[in-house]
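Title: Comparing notes on inverse folding

I've been comparing how different people in this forum approach sequence design from structure. To keep things fair, I'm posting one structure and asking everyone to reply with a full sequence. Here's the target:
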């Protein structure tokens, strides 16, 4: 049997992003900005009016490089390239460069600039349609990240995550270079509330999994030009999976027994669910039996986490399907086969709940 017999959700309404002031850019495309206005990818610099795009160019065809020679240009550029931000600087002269690659819903941006401060304010958050995580890797210089009543001082090699759905401040006193990986909440294989425990926490690049992941991220920054085609798409998502692994490891080290000990049990159950998503018979009864608990206790564990068993299974299955639909390596695989791979045995049912969750049918989403 399947637990996917009901679904709730709503289509997200997205507002338009303003056109940026002219800045020097090479090369640029309109398609990335158009998709950003639709809420499908983080924004990248738009093409100024009257300019054409390179023939056959797409956001992932080449590295986008944009230079700002004044603070006014930089202030507009930063908000256009990430999420709306308030940007401050007392310097009389200013220079900054962004090198970016957009792959599906992931944005990888190398930022090189003079010292300044950026703030994500409640009013800017209220005007935004989607929620993203941003992972910073400090490459040179020093940064200070503040969010959720925590602050992290970042030195070269250090990593830190922050949430665009809550206020934050990021400050660089002097010249710096940093790599930013920006991705929607639902791309990460961890609940947003769990990741929220790690915002503005310094993750040192010379300890634990940081010793593996920090050098990998450094190589991403140095090789943005090779992140193209199917291999680039896969590599970018592999980076997100590595980050999720690092976050889970950090959470395990920090986890305190909460909700009567449900925290550890919930983590084990979620891992079990992820490992069995392809089984159409996955159900509360089978999950409870695998963990030697009653179905009532299972439902209580998820209730304490403000979730349900069915919604968690549905969300995880849909996210895997969504990722596969955008994977160039799987472009020849039928939609029905992708759905079946992740436990959806009824193609019509899958199409309905996918459209409810993401606002369009699986086939339309795949062609976007």
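Reply #1:
Here's my take.
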């Amino acid at each position: 049997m399947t637990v996917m017999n009901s679904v709730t959700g709503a289509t997200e309404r997205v507002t338009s992003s303003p056109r940026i002031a002219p800045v020097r850019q090479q090369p640029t495309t309109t398609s990335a900005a158009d998709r950003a206005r639709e809420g499908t990818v983080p924004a990248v610099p738009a093409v100024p009016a009257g300019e054409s795009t390179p023939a056959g160019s797409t956001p992932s065809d080449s590295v986008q490089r944009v230079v700002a020679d004044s603070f006014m240009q930089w202030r507009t550029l930063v908000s256009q390239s990430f999420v709306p931000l308030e940007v401050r600087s007392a310097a009389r002269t200013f220079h900054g460069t962004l090198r970016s690659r957009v792959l599906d819903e992931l944005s990888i941006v190398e930022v090189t600039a003079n010292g300044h401060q950026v703030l994500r304010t409640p009013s800017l958050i209220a005007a935004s349609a989607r929620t993203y995580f941003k992972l910073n890797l400090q490459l040179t210089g020093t940064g200070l990240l503040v969010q959720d009543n925590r602050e992290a001082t970042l030195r070269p090699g250090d990593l830190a995550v922050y949430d665009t759905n809550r206020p934050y401040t990021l400050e660089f006193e002097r010249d710096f270079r940093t790599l930013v990986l920006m991705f929607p909440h639902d791309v990460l294989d961890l609940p947003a509330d769990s990741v929220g425990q790690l915002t503005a926490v310094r993750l040192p690049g010379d300890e634990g999994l940081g010793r593996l992941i920090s050098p990998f991220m450094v190589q991403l920054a140095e090789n943005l030009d090779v992140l193209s085609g199917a291999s680039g798409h896969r590599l970018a998502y592999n980076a997100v999976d590595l980050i999720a692994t690092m976050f889970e490891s950090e959470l395990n080290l920090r986890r305190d027994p909460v909700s009567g000990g449900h925290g550890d049990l919930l983590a084990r159950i979620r891992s079990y669910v992820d490992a069995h998503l392809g089984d159409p018979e996955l159900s509360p009864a089978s999950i409870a039996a695998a963990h030697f608990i009653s179905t009532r206790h299972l439902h209580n564990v998820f209730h304490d986490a403000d979730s349900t068993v069915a919604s968690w299974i549905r969300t995880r299955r849909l996210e895997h399907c969504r990722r596969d639909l955008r994977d160039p390596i799987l472009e020849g695989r039928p939609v029905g086969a992708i759905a079946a791979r992740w436990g959806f045995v009824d193609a019509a049912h899958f199409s309905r709940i996918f459209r409810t969750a993401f606002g369009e049918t699986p086939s339309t989403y795949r062609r976007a």
